[in-house]
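Hey,

Quick one before I head out. I ran the complex with pyridoxal-5'-phosphate overnight. Inputs first:
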Amino acid sequence: MSLTDRDLKVIWHPYTQMKTAAPPVPIVRGKGALLFDEHGNQYIDAVSSWWVNIHGHAHPYIAQKVSEQLHKLEHVIFAGFTHEGAIELAERLLKILPDNQQKVFYSDNGSTAVEVAIKMCLQYWHNKGEKRTKIIAFKNAYHGDTFGAMAVSGRSAFTAAFDQLLFEVEFIDLPDAANSSNLKSLISHLKAEAACFIFEPLVQGAGGMLMYEAGYLDELMMHCRNEGVLMIADEVFTGFGRTGKRFACNHVTEQPDIMCFSKGLTGGTMALGLTTCTQQIFDAFLSDDRLKTLFHGHSFTANPVACAAALASLDLFLQSATTENIEKITGMHRQFGEKIKDHPKVKTTRQTGTIFAMEWETGSDTSYFNSLRDTLYTYFLNAGIILRPLGNTLYILPPYCITNDQLTYIYAKIEQALNEI
Ligand SMILES: *Cc1c(COP(=O)(O)O)cnc(C)c1O
């Protein structure tokens, strides 16, 4: 039996309508930006395997470090025990994060990193004896698929079955020149009950690669700081170079109280989540009263193998060659955007660092709109490129090691699609 047939018998895939979806493509190996199926066909991974991969697939350096770690220590309980990798990763990350970040709390993935961040904020106020439980978030936000993370995400078709059970959140618009002062008054108005403001800095990924200006975010953050509203920067997607700087928060001057990381953290090798916070947050949990403890943890918290992958990925990330690649991709994206922006099928283009997005003009034809996403997905897959449009938004989000030829090929195929579809 083929891998596909065996899969169809036993697997339930994520975000997949199992009745109508095309059978999955079995991948047997990867190298650089390429993935290979069992027949030897190659695919350029232009979405970094759901935005996690930054240095390419099966990177030999990461593989070696992970393998060495596996022979030393695969896992140890992280309550009452510790290990070198978790400590070193925390030390090295804190050195490159905004300097108010002082403590690292480990978990398993982006959603859990967000759950931890929310719990830190809610319990911060609880421990201080203040009744502040309201959370402020952006419309169209995406912070994960567990219940807390889903609650602070925008309501959509994806959350409809659960909406009644999700806690109430104050959703605000993305800031711009027109609404900036209104948003600030809104925050001032809510401050007495506001536990925190959670946001994806600069780019809302799953919301459709929606982008907003650092200057307006900075103003909003400064306002939160003045009003005593805690800030959570969810950098699960934007962290580790995606926006052109190491972290999206490097584009603003104000610093968040809490930051969330996952995805690129291990170079896309293993599942690992991480929530960092200020000394002020941490101190609110220090007490002789045990009830002030942060009661949260996962079986695989700070898994040593995942930490080894993250440390190896960090080594690569800090090399100047990686910075040069990020700048190269940023420049090539910009040129491509310039080239296609006036094409009649292109509604808008936008870009932040290595993230390029364009909206396909659909006119008023909604049936065309509904099938466009699948048409584009299949078109590019047949051309040996993995692109997963979000509705009519097509985006390119490559591993930083992608070659000029591979990137040029993707651009050429998109132009061809603009003329053919
Ligand atoms: C992907 C994502 C998450 C959730 O991460 P998972 O590892 O998929 O649980 C949270 N926040 C943002 C901004 C994301 O893009």
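The first strand starts at residue 27 and ends at 31.

Talk tomorrow,
K.
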